[in-house]
């Protein structure tokens, strides 16, 4: 089959590799119908040291089951499935609590920008959906693999509820998804911090009541202006760089919550008396256990109430995947869908 | 009047100072019946640079109203009152939300180890209690000024509920109070990390099901042993030093919550992928808005169901306050009450 491999920063190639095969009775092989490029794929795209060995890429996909191991009972050949970015057995203590990203037998996909994918613990991991593989709903279904439900996780962990005031930091696909998820959960006011008008326009359509283009101290001052000096009860941080964390500290109201879903590109950060502690601010978030949310949100996607797939503004073939990375890295595209 | 002043590390003196007077119509003057020394008072006792000017000390007290300003309506001369360690007007947006430590017109007491205290915003700050000033309940009532309700805040922010598994880090008065508060909220298992047997014995009496004397990596390994390798859903950090934060990271279960009430003696700490983020661990806590909790807990103290005053194991006169500091700093005493 053909698959995308990264050989270093800015160096993505599509090559012939061996087809995956069933390795355990609980495995399934899925033919990829749509995959995509994630904002988090851009971190290695900017930083990965050059190597002679390519690294398979991609952790988001929807597809059709081609083959199942002897221990798979919930799925059969031909099922259309959504693959959460985390593998989960569906039975361990963490899965039962809805924290499938910490599954005792789990792991993360990293080979989805390809024609075929081996899915371990297929019964636990995959969710089937009653759609054809040429459905118009494919983009929105694909967002249930990661991006929209990562925004949803941010909002859930931030305890967004009817009447909440929310600041969303970042106008990438996860930031915009956080806006949509906050609106869905009843937020009354949503301040979107971002400076790419095409993106913030979609944010406004999805429920942002205010847009702040400024960053750093200027951005913090602007949010203070908009909130009578206090900041907002909820801050959803969808970037992952330290300046975004510092901005979150600046716009969080005393007693409020900062919920992070941007993968932190730092380890240490201020948490002491003058930042989190003194103001009783809660810091929460992490990798989204999207598997825990799919069943709840799927009906709203199927009946068209939710259209999170609007974050995709470009589609490429699998062979064009390198161009997809470039377009996202150069901010020409918000989020790129890959059609093998 | 006489008051305790700190002139530098290890140097507390009791001296004659001017009586406080009403300065605003919302002030009251309270005669101190009992004050005490806080674990957080030991930070300056260990570190304060020497100075020719003494710093008044103490932020916990119960007493009797001696005089009220013309704007005070809820209190009158002779009322027995509990003073939360934070001043609060009772009317601003934060006070209405129960976050009186962030009151827009607030501040913190720092003159309670004395005979008289001026209380700003007396109507908002003070809570009266129907007891005589020689009541046997004085020690427990005094803990509603800070220490017990700080432990309660830790447990509330940690969302301790029936069935919770909890680790409490620290066997000081706040740690023990956190044990008592967790038990009261229904925690099923409470692991107390502390190595002073006299203290952990009180912790066991108050609900600790396990005591771990080891610290650092050894302590973390011990808690892992006790919890099937997973750690506990809730960790209450009642120390404030970085090693205690690191230990909290080590014993927190994926998806769990670290609630801090020990005043952090550090600003930066790890919060990234390998610590908080990757495991979806929530970090919460801060200075306890004890004013928000007093009305709820007071009846249980008045009828004897709760005896948080058992943390006091030594009583000194005001003139003996320097000896009280020394005894706490040397860990001879768990918590010292001051009787002016």
TrEMBL record, chains A, B:
Cofactor(s) for this protein? Answer: Zn(2+)
Identify the residues that the record assigns to the Alcohol dehydrogenase-like N-terminal domain, covering every copy. 25-123
Q: Domain Alcohol dehydrogenase-like C-terminal, which positions? A: 173-291
> Which UniProt keywords are given for this protein, alphabetically ordered?
Metal-binding, Oxidoreductase, Zinc
- Keyword Isomerase present in the record's keywords: the answer is no
Q: Does the keyword Zinc apply?
A: yes
UniProt cross-references to InterPro entries, sorted A to Z: ADH-like_C, ADH-like_N, ADH_Zn_CS, GroES-like_sf, NAD(P)-bd_dom_sf
Concerning its family, UniProt says: Belongs to the zinc-containing alcohol dehydrogenase family.
Put simply, this protein is called: Alcohol dehydrogenase catalytic domain-containing protein
The species is Pseudokineococcus basanitobsidens
């Amino acid at each position: 089959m053909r698959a995308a491999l990264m050989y270093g920063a800015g160096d993505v190639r599509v090559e012939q590799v061996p087809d995956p095969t069933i390795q355990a009775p609980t495995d399934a092989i899925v033919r990829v119908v749509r995959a995509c490029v994630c904002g988090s794929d851009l971190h290695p795209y900017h930083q990965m040291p050059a190597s002679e060995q390519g690294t398979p890429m991609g952790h988001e996909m929807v597809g059709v089951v081609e083959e199942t191991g002897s221990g798979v009972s919930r799925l059969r050949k031909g099922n259309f499935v959504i693959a959460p970015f985390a593998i989960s057995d569906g039975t361990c203590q963490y899965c039962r609590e809805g924290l499938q990203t910490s599954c005792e037998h789990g792991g993360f996909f990293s080979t989805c920008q390809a024609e075929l994918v081996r899915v371990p613990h297929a019964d636990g991991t995959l969710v089937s959906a009653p759609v054809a593989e040429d459905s118009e709903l494919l983009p929105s279904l694909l967002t249930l693999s990661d991006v929209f439900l990562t925004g949803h996780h941010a909002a859930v962990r931030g305890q967004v509820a009817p009447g909440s005031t929310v600041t969303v930091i970042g106008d990438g696909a996860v930031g915009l998804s956080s806006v949509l998820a906050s609106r869905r959960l009843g937020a009354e006011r949503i301040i979107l911090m971002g400076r790419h008008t095409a993106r913030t326009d979609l944010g406004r359509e999805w429920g942002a009541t205010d847009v702040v283009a400024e960053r750093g101290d200027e951005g913090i001052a602007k949010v203070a202006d908009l909130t009578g000096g206090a900041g907002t009860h909820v801050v959803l941080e969808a970037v992952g760089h330290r300046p975004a964390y510092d901005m979150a500290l600046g716009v969080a109201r005393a007693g409020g919550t900062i919920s992070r879903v941007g993968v932190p590109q730092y380890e240490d950060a201020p948490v002491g008396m003058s930042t989190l502690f003194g103001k009783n601010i809660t810091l929460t978030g992490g990798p989204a256990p999207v598997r825990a949310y799919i069943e709840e949100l799927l009906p709203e996607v199927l009946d068209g109430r939710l259209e999170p797939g609007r974050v995709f503004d470009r589609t490429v073939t699998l062979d064009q995947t390198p161009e997809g990375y470039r377009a996202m890295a150069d901010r020409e595209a918000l989020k790129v869908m890959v059609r093998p």
